[in-house]
């Protein structure tokens, strides 16, 4: 699945001061990614604050992104949850036209066993008309999808094509890269260790940082994919402070502040998230000036 190699961006959902979806800002955001060379877009993932969006709003977001993208970049749709039957029903009932794959998070809150995680994704695989990318993010789900479970899923289901691995554990990531089929995509979900994962054989990243700095981050990933480690690490070290900053007060509060500073969107988020502090916005402003 070469269309998902390189840099994917987890798109945020811009909001107006009145707490409505900012449709014009969303269009600008999509164009900003396309013009700056990212490889694909992820729609309605965690960074999109999708849990706070109504069904109508989700349809608005999907429609705008598809229309603005004009099939230029592959699109991945976030479709996951901790109620397996609901995810299966959504896969069977939703209009998935225009999307190339789904990204499905490991069940959260329930804290299932490894066998429970396996059976959850087995059901999703059987129901999905699109390729499936698993999403392991223990910091949000409170359970870790272990390499053995990933290997089982990769070997048992042809339409499970990859994983967004966001445990922040390089050893675990390397085990997944080593133990899964050669064409299985182990995609970084952790901006800070994207480059080491790529150099270890990973397929790239689904990034938050790249949304605000698509040109710089994509160049770093491309250098890594080309095994130009010295050039890649020069960019990595320039980006590191910014990566720390955007996650300092939660996601997507930090990256939305970057987008505001770049005059792309406002920085409004929906409760229970709150906007980044003035101190963080000031630090991000300094980082942006120094990066140029």
Automatic annotation (TrEMBL):
Gene Ontology terms describing biological process: diaminopimelate biosynthetic process; lysine biosynthetic process via diaminopimelate
Residues binding pyruvate: 47, 206
Annotated metabolic or biological route of this protein: Amino-acid biosynthesis; L-lysine biosynthesis via DAP pathway; (S)-tetrahydrodipicolinate from L-aspartate: step 3/4
Localization (cell): Cytoplasm
Predominant place of localization: cytoplasm
Catalytic activity: L-aspartate 4-semialdehyde + pyruvate = (2S,4S)-4-hydroxy-2,3,4,5-tetrahydrodipicolinate + H2O + H(+)
Site (Part of a proton relay during catalysis): 46, 109
Superkingdom of origin organism: Bacteria
GO CC annotation: cytosol
Record: active site: 135 (proton donor/acceptor), 164 (schiff-base intermediate with substrate)
InterPro entries linked to this entry: Aldolase_TIM, DapA, DapA-like, Schiff_base-form_aldolases_AS
EC number: 4.3.3.7
Gene Ontology MF annotations: 4-hydroxy-tetrahydrodipicolinate synthase activity
Keywords in alphabetical order: Amino-acid biosynthesis, Cytoplasm, Diaminopimelate biosynthesis, Lyase, Lysine biosynthesis, Schiff base
Subunit note: Homotetramer; dimer of dimers.
PANTHER family (UniProt xref): 4-HYDROXY-2-OXOGLUTARATE ALDOLASE, MITOCHONDRIAL (PTHR12128:SF66), DIHYDRODIPICOLINATE SYNTHASE (PTHR12128)
Protein name per the record: 4-hydroxy-tetrahydrodipicolinate synthase
Gene for this chain: dapA
């Amino acid at each position: 699945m070469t269309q998902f190699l390189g840099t994917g961006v987890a798109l945020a959902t811009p909001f107006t001061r009145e707490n409505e979806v900012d449709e014009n800002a969303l269009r600008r955001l999509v164009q900003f990614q396309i013009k700056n060379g990212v490889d694909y877009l992820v729609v309605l993932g965690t960074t999109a604050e999708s849990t706070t969006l109504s069904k109508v709003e989700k349809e608005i977001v999907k429609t705008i992104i598809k229309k603005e993208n004009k099939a230029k970049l592959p699109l991945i749709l976030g479709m996951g949850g901790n109620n397996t039957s609901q995810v299966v029903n959504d896969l069977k009932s939703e209009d998935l036209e225009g999307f190339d794959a789904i990204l499905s998070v490991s069940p959260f809150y329930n804290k299932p066993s490894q066998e429970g995680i396996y059976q959850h994704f087995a059901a999703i695989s059987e129901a999905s008309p699109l390729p499936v990318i698993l999403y392991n993010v223990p910091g949000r789900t409170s359970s870790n999808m272990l390499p053995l479970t990933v290997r089982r899923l990769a070997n048992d289901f042809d339409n499970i094509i990859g994983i967004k691995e966001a445990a922040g554990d390089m050893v675990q990531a390397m085990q997944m890269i080593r133990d899964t089929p050669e064409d299985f995509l182990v995609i970084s979900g952790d901006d800070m260790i994207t480059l080491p994962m790529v150099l270890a054989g990973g397929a790239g990243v689904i990034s938050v940082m790249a949304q605000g700095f698509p040109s710089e981050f994509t160049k770093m990933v491309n250098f890594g994919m080309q095994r130009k480690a010295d050039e890649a690490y020069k960019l990595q070290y320039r980006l590191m402070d910014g990566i720390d900053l955007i996650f300092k007060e939660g996601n997507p509060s930090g990256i939305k502040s970057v987008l505001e500073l770049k005059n792309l969107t406002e920085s409004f988020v929906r409760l229970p998230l709150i906007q980044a502090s003035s101190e963080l916005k000031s630090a991000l402003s300094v980082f942006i000036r120094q990066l140029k």
